[in-house]
Amino acid sequence: MVRHFLDIHRLSAEDLRAILDDAHARKQAREAWPKGRADADAPAKDRVLAMIFEKNSTRTRFSFDAAIRQLGGSSIIANAGDMQLGRGEPVEDTARVLSRMVDAVMIRANDHEDVERFARVATVPVVNGLTDRSHPCQILADIMTIEEARGPIAGKTIAWVGDGNNVCHSFMHAAPKLGFHLQVACPAEYHPDLRDLAIGGNSVTLTADPREAVAGADVVVTDTWVSMGDQDYEDRLEAFDGYGVDDTLMGAANAHAVFLHCLPAHRGEEVTDEVIDGPRSLVWDEAENRIHAQKAVLAWCFAGSEP
Question: I need a surface site. Which of 1, 136, 241, 273 has the fewest CB within 10 A?
Answer without folding.
Answer: 1
